[in-house]
Write a structure and sequence with these properties.
Elements: H1 15-23, H2 25-32, H3 35-42, H4 47-78, H5 82-109, H6 120-132, H7 139-159, H8 172-179, H9 181-200, H10 203-227
Helix pairs in contact: 2-10, 4-5, 4-6, 4-7, 4-10, 5-9, 6-10, 7-8, 7-9, 7-10
């Protein structure tokens, strides 16, 4: 399956994440090859859908910041490898630039971000993020969800950069932001951290981490649906 490239590749032996990608390949494909992404790749995307995605994802990213900060705190408390914090901190630091990028894109597209309300799929996703910030959620579960959130975007938008794609020129910057090799390397680093934690995790934590992984995929699909105007 093509949806196993990029973020799914490279971990030694594949680890638990590769096992889950094989086990749940159908829903993973639905999340990473959604009609919103395929229409972007084919050059047929409705620009009103893109604008809806832009305004809603801006809201999501602002809620994503405290979640990533909570993962960093969990890494500080639970990780035995200091390099974990360095990878997560790099992701947290990049979010300030990401928020600035959304504001610039909104201005370019005439999208008003102030006063924009999150739609239901966005609200549900943000509530899920908030639940992962609880002190009762282990670092292993949180880092797995963090990897999955980033990996879905990398896998999705990289599809729009492949040879033969007809992605509109005005959307290339968006696709390159998350579909680039450099973002792919970052996702790979997160995957390695998650696999390392999962390798040592007891069964009940593995179960919770797999549930979190599937929840991310379900929320991503609903977010794409919302962007496409599917209620």
């Amino acid at each position: 399956m093509e949806g196993k490239n990029n973020a799914a590749e490279g971990a030694s032996g594949g680890g638990m994440i590769m096992a889950w990608l094989n086990k749940h390949h159908t829903i993973y494909s639905r999340a990473t090859r959604h009609p919103f992404i395929l229409s972007t790749r084919d050059g047929t995307v409705d620009l009103s859908s893109f604008k809806r995605w832009l305004e809603q994802d801006y809201i999501f990213v602002r809620e994503f910041v405290p979640f990533v900060a909570s993962v960093l705190l969990k890494a500080w408390r639970e990780s035995e490898d200091g390099s974990d914090m360095e990878v997560i901190l790099s992701g947290l630091a990049s979010l300030n630039d990401e928020i600035s990028w959304f504001k610039k894109e909104a201005l370019k597209w005439g999208v008003l971000l102030s006063g924009t309300s999150p739609q239901k799929a966005n609200q549900d996703y943000c509530r899920f993020l908030e639940s992962l910030m609880s002190s009762e959620i282990s670092y292993t579960v949180a880092i797995t969800a963090f990897w999955a959130i980033e990996a879905v975007y990398q896998e999705s938008f990289s599809l729009c950069l492949k040879h033969g794609s007809r992605t509109p020129a005005e959307l290339m910057e968006t696709c390159q932001r998350w579909g680039s090799d450099s973002f792919g390397q970052y996702c790979h680093s997160l995957q390695m951290i998650a696999n390392k934690r999962l390798e040592k995790a007891p069964d009940y934590i593995l179960g919770k981490a797999e549930e979190a992984f599937l929840s991310v995929l379900e929320h991503e699909i609903e977010f794409w649906n919302m962007s496409n105007g599917e209620w």
